[in-house]
Amino acid sequence: MDLLAQIDRWGALAPGRPAHVSEGRTLTYGELREQSDALAAWLEERLGANRSPVAVIGHKEPEMMVAFLGSVKSGRPYVPIDLSIPPQRAERIVQNAGAALTLTPALVREALAAPRGSAQPPRVTGDDPYYIIFTSGSTGEPKGVVITLNCLTTFVIWTLGEQKFPELNETFLNQAPFSFDLSVMDLYSSLASGGTLFSITREAIANPKVLYQDFAKSGITTWVSTPSFAQMCLVEKSFGPEMLPQIRRFWFCGETLANETAAQLLDRFPNAEVWNTYGPTEATVATTSIRVDREVLTRHSPLPVGYAMPGTRIAIMDEHRVAVAEGERGEIVIIGPNVSPGYLGRADLTEKAFFATDGTRAYRTGDWGRTRDGLFFFEGRMDGQIKLHGYRIEIGDIESHLRNLPQIADAVVLVAEKNGKPDSLAGFVVLRERGTGSDFEISLQFKKLLADRLPSYMVPRKFWFLEAFPMTANGKADRRKLAELLR
Q1: CATH number for the domain including 437?
Q2: Checking CA distances to 355, which of 229, 252, 284, 341 falls within 20 to 30 Å?
């Protein structure tokens, strides 16, 4: 597949088809093709032989899509930066990327209004970097993950083949900001199939009334989000087929999908499919998938993340990079053409996480996992372990057990400190129904249930009951804000 040619094709075949809808503004495929070509020519005239990345700062505006395609059509990768990212951090990203230019929606509009020549710059091809997404580094310094056109094309061919999106007849929810690679799942699946990307802004997400009104008029057929965002929406009793009458599938990535979240969605939307996927930014969004139906829910708790995409292999390895036996836990290692070539300008970090096997790129995810009957299971971060009173504890293990309790819709566990040292575990819980018991009585009930499943040192000392979790801009539970309740 020539991905850029595939996207441009819709500009010729269906120029009036909406490519992007955001806050009442619509960008058609004809406009996207014409404007991205024009921006590419403008970038070529302005930057000449400089093929450094182009930073793109904004939030869900149609000009963002024009900037992304205009950059790669000019032979330069783009670096997406959402307005939710603090200015100081955004500036560090621009500097670390060595960006030749920073585009904003306003600058894109200025560029499109400016006179330009007929230059046709060379486009990004093959193993050229296509986009660079910056993620958190362990030192606090953001690190740029380089994704090539071949990486992205491999991912898109897989999604189109597996999901079989009908051409020119799909509307994708865009919940994640473009700086979060989950958005690549909906953005390029939509563009490659001639779909419409329906963006919801952070302002809408912060105002449930506006959010559900947007959903009702969206025509969404494919829902793409983090599981946390869907769980938040499920708290609203009207969140169902009347609000989203055309929904065909829920497509999740970015964090663990709880059994109960999947079960609730199947109950609320009996005609829709639920898909669970797994993958790090370094392996182009997602690498495994599985359709979660009633049989899968009955057989597995927690849920599996599925099977590896065609052409890519997953190995569960020990610390010496030796594959472990079926059923044993080890590090998830991804081997295949969707694996990034590494981190921008950080040979030291690249050497630690990436290696080659049989001439194919491989990435050490830092995630625990195991296989059972050919299915892959994700079991948390290897660095997600804490030490409390001499015991090594996996926070994700406790959260998984809490989510499996029928009264609990969602759960987060944090470490409470005393005098700057870890002191106890605190559980934050969203209940399905409040019931009549006091917080103390409900907490006591949960402690007894967990004591039947976990060692006493893994049972939270205190529980906090919330209507909903605060969310990060990426649609995940905001653990930092929850931690403020402990102070």
Answers
A1: 3.30.300.30
A2: 252
